[in-house]
From TrEMBL:
The lineage of its organism: Bacteria, Pseudomonadati, Bacteroidota, Flavobacteriia, Flavobacteriales. GO terms for biological process: carbohydrate metabolic process; purine ribonucleoside salvage. This is Phospho-sugar mutase. InterPro entries: A-D-PHexomutase_a/b/a-I, A-D-PHexomutase_a/b/a-I/II/III, A-D-PHexomutase_a/b/a-II, A-D-PHexomutase_a/b/a-III, A-D-PHexomutase_C_sf, A-D-PHexomutase_CS, Alpha-D-phosphohexomutase_SF. Its cofactor is Mg(2+).
Length: 569
């Protein structure tokens, strides 16, 4: 471990402002444990870029850590594009300090002679991804910590294709950042290189979103929607997108419509959690709405609740919405004729059910590591193929390739199209989902996340992964494990034959067990939060829709038994 006191004292020099120096001196004098947490390491790029708690220190988000990253990225861009006039675009979300941190990032880029397009106000992450290509930029940055608690912020880097950075750029950029010292950062701006942007890019993005997500579904005037932005950025785009697509009955949760980094009405602005949508769900019951949609602070994830068979609002999980959205897109393509070059995509910890869907429609199917940057990379790697859509279990979906990251704006419109059309035909979003289970197999998934904070937490997570690898699981709910996929060693081991194959995707600290009956358990440390995550998937046949509730309870019980068996409850 680094010498924390020496590292911290480096912040007592004139390179840092008086406030930073005062904070560090106070920690040295009075709070060694907090000093350790702030300086024991540098913030690192994970699956979603750099994300952390705001404050002074090398392990915190502040003007210096972001300035260092931006200086390193500037140096790298100059190296890769030595003879081009470099351009970047920057967006930011509702979080505390996002606007001032975005301004700092813009100033550092400009001080390095790079043209900066800076959104004048908060905007969604999908619009930032769109803007990179729309403005023909070399890179993009968004200041956001997604659905993390209020004390967090983050810095996500996008490349020329509009997708987040992937190999080899990520390692090369990290290398460039690591060569930068804090006194190398150029903070003095060249203001003539910073251009504020807003309406022109907004209009282009909204038009593209409607063009990609609107399929002229029937019944829009009778389809009631409750929408909440959970104090985040989607308020800048989703209401207008729905309006232009023809939705008239949209009720916005006004007490959550004002952007606010404190997220005062929710414990967590995470649409994966039913509690986050509590106010919206209550309003839906009051007005008899058909669908509730809520989005996270930067509007890349969405949670959808629809009426179940009993007429009650039920929050669907990311696998369920991904399945129905993908099927709907394939149905629309089928109407005009599938050409044979289409493909859909998902991630290795998402439902295996999507592969069966691809087989049924005769389209290609690809899986990637967790994170939409890998799906965006597929689009770049296979230009001869046509990406239809895809998603991951963590409530993200991408419609076509005009945005190269998960996009809650267009996905919200797509969900409304599915629900509206189903209702007009006498069905529902929920009933259509059950029909999928009858046609492609009944899959149920569950995620367990264990939070382990700080240095000790990081060590505990590391040890848990080691234990699973060194003491492999032999059975899950009585079903024998027949395959272990270790993405850290790129090996897929068939325990029945003893054969070991190479996994042809980048290495990642993920371990997946598969049993004889198709049960699957995956374990991975989060790349953006102090958590270790366990993903469970079980399945069986569903002979007819009438058996849905009975068979569903059986699958739920199976997952519960496995969780108890692994002592994760």
């Amino acid at each position: 471990m680094r010498d924390i006191i020496t590292t911290a004292k480096g912040w007592l020099t004139d390179t840092f402002d008086s406030n930073a120096q005062e904070v560090v001196q106070r920690l040295i004098d009075n709070d060694p444990e907090e000093l350790k947490e702030r300086f024991y390491k540098d913030l690192e790029f994970g699956t979603g870029g750099m994300r952390g708690i705001m404050g002074i220190g090398t392990n915190r988000i502040n003007k210096y850590t972001l300035g260092k990253s931006t200086q390193g990225l500037s140096n790298y861009l100059k190296k890769v594009y030595p003879d081009e006039r470099l351009k970047v675009v920057i967006a930011y979300d509702c979080r505390h300090n996002s606007d001032t941190l975005a301004q700092t990032v813009a100033e550092v880029f400009s001080a390095n002679g790079i043209k900066v397009y800076l959104f004048s106000e908060l905007r969604t992450t999908p619009e930032l991804s769109f803007a990179v290509r729309h403005l023909k930029c070399h890179a993009g940055v968004v200041l956001t910590a997604s659905h993390n608690p209020p004390e967090y912020n983050g810095y996500k880097v996008y490349w020329t294709d509009g997708g987040q950075i992937v190999p080899p750029q990520d390692a090369e950029i990290i290398g460039a950042i690591n060569t930068v010292s804090f006194d190398d950062i150029k903070f003095t701006p060249e203001n003539s290189l910073i251009q504020k942007i807003d309406r022109d890019v907004d209009e282009a993005f909204i038009e593209a979103s409607v063009r990609n997500g609107n399929f002229d579904a029937d019944g829009k005037s009778n389809f009631k929607i409750v929408f909440t932005s959970l104090h985040g950025t989607s308020i800048t785009a989703i209401p207008e997108v729905l309006k232009r697509a023809g939705y008239e009955n949209v009720t916005i949760i006004e007490e959550q419509a004002t952007p606010d980094g404190s997220f005062p009405t929710v414990d967590s602005p995470n649409p994966e959690e039913p509690e986050a949508l509590e106010i919206a769900l209550k309003k839906a019951e009051e007005i008899g709405a058909d669908m509730v949609v809520g989005t996270d602070p930067d509007s890349d994830r969405l949670g959808i609740a629809v009426r179940n068979l009993e007429g009650d609002m039920e929050l669907l999980n990311g696998n369920q919405t991904m399945l129905l959205m993908t099927k709907y897109l394939l149905d629309q393509r089928k109407k005009t004729g599938l050409k044979g070059d289409e493909f859909i995509a998902t991630t290795i910890v998402s439902t295996p059910m999507l592969e069966g869907l691809a087989e049924a429609y005769g389209v290609g199917f690809k899986t990637a590591l967790t994170g939409f940057k890998w799906i965006a990379k597929m689009i770049e790697d296979y230009p001869e193929e046509d990406f239809v859509g895809g998603g991951e279990e963590s409530f993200g979906f991408m419609v076509g390739d005009f945005v190269r990251d998960k996009d809650a704006v267009t996905s919200t419109l797509l969900a409304c199209e599915i629900g509206s059309e189903a209702k007009a035909k006498g069905s529902s979003f929920y009933k259509d989902l059950i029909d999928c289970y009858v046609d492609y197999g009944f899959y149920k998934e569950k995620l367990i996340s264990l939070t382990k904070k700080g240095i000790s937490g990081a060590e505990e997570i590391k040890q848990m992964m080691v234990d699973f690898k060194e003491n492999p699981i032999e059975t899950l709910d009585g079903s024998k494990v027949i395959r272990i996929d270790d993405y850290n060693t790129s090996t897929s081991s068939d325990l029945t034959t003893g054969e070991v194959e190479t996994i042809d995707i980048p290495k990642s600290n993920v371990l997946i067990y598969t049993t004889e009956d198709g049960t699957r358990m995956a374990a991975r440390p989060s790349g953006t939060e102090p958590k270790i995550k366990f993903y469970f998937s079980v399945n069986t046949d569903l002979q007819n829709a009438d058996d849905f509730k009975k068979v569903g309870r059986e699958l739920d019980d199976k997952i519960t038994r496995i969780i108890e068996e692994l002592k994760l409850s």
